[in-house]
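Subject: Protein entry, chain in single-letter code together with its fold tokens

Category: Structural biology, sequence-to-fold work with a learned token vocabulary.

Notation: Tokens come from a learned vocabulary of local backbone shapes, not from coordinates.

Start of record: The labelled sequence and token lines come straight after this line.
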Amino acid sequence: MNILPSRGNVSLFDELFRDFTPGFFIKPLHGDPLPSQIKIDVKESETQFIVHADIPGVSKDDIHVEVDGPLVTIKAEVRQTDSERKDERQLRTERFYGAVSRSFQLPAEIERNAASAKYENGVLSLTLPKKQGSQGGQRLRIE
């Protein structure tokens, strides 16, 4: 039970500290985690699937795509490096860091040798040709 009187969802305690200037209590912060799930769009034609995945702020070398039959797995990792100079101190960092992955199954198997991946402006584009039969998983090289 809260003993502080409140107005709606805001207590007097919250209102008191809201009146301070924004940034009064800024502490060094080590960033937010990546989003919990990679957002994707999947389109299908008669011969292939086209996948667009939003992965902003990630180097293409830190993105890994694996194809195993109809299963596609996308993994991304952002590393945060601390860089401080003697004449400055870091007050806040809100850039993403960490790792995230997403797996999804397509309605048909993929011809993994003909599959391609391209990363541009924070969007990973996969071209995944359909195939009959099955093979083991393979990691795609991102252009």
